[in-house]
Design a protein that fits this description.
The protein is mainly α and 252 residues long. The chain has 8 helices and no strands.
Length: 252
């Protein structure tokens, strides 16, 4: 009976992780179907088909891969922390590469079509998110994967790093919702209110993205799902206790 609660917690955790992956993959697939079926497919020639690369890369990179990179600290409880750090950094690097490809695609399309850049709220939020994402990745590289900072600085920055990761996921989902709405209004505004298949699909995509973010947020903020401390993390805790009233750093 004493072990029933931990078993239920582990089962709930595994179920939520599975749900998050279904939601994330479904979001990527629906984005591909939207751009491929309703918007004419993909190309790299300055046409509207090149623009279609943008939403697919952003959902895949800044939302799905970014979310999974955060999740590895919860999933791989028993793996050596160094290996999990490396996987975390690699997935984030893939997310960054995909995001840059998406940004290049939309700017290239705008240039070919002579469309002004960076005038909409979506573009402002997207550029802010990408810049902060790049900064977050570099700081994580310098502070944790190949640490050049002192243990005191790493312990001080760790809670900030964890918070910024979740905040950037929220920003990515929010920016995606702005982009979905903007694309629908630019392309099917006269028929959007008539529940056309494209509009319904895009709305469902938006709901899936929100649900993905909510499930990830739940997994990352529940205390019982945190990675158990190990000697490496305890070393950080000793230094961090000098900064708080007997507290210890939050492990990712």
């Amino acid at each position: 009976m004493e072990d029933s609660a931990p078993r239920r917690s582990r089962a709930a955790f595994a179920g939520l992780v599975g749900v998050s992956q279904v939601l994330g993959l479904a979001s990527v697939v629906l984005t591909g179907v939207w751009m491929g079926h309703f918007r004419g497919g993909f190309a790299w020639n300055g046409s509207k088909q090149e623009f279609n690369v943008h939403p697919l890369c952003m959902v895949l990179g800044l939302v799905f891969l970014h979310g999974d990179a955060i999740l590895v600290y919860r999933v791989f409880h028993n793996e050596p922390k160094k290996n999990v750090k490396l996987l975390h950094g690699i997935i984030h690097l893939l997310a960054l590469i995909m995001s840059i490809v998406g940004f290049v695609a939309v700017f290239d399309y705008h240039r070919a079509a002579k469309i002004p850049d960076m005038y909409s709220l979506h573009s402002w939020c997207g550029m802010t998110t990408l810049i902060l994402f790049c900064l977050q990745w570099v700081m994580g590289l310098l502070f944790f994967l190949f640490p050049v900072a002192s243990a005191w600085l790493r312990a001080s920055y760790l809670p900030v790093h964890v918070f910024c990761g979740l905040a950037l996921l929220v920003m990515s989902v929010g920016t995606s919702l702005l982009g979905i709405t903007e694309t629908l209004l630019f392309n099917i505004m006269p028929t959007y209110s008539k529940f056309t298949p494209e509009g319904v699909l895009a709305n469902v995509l938006g709901i899936l993205l929100v649900c993905f973010g909510l499930v990830l947020g739940h997994l990352m903020t529940r205390e019982e799902y945190r990675r158990p401390p190990n000697p490496e993390e305890e070393a950080l805790s000793v230094h961090f206790k000098t900064l708080t009233d007997g507290g210890s750093p939050t492990t990712p």
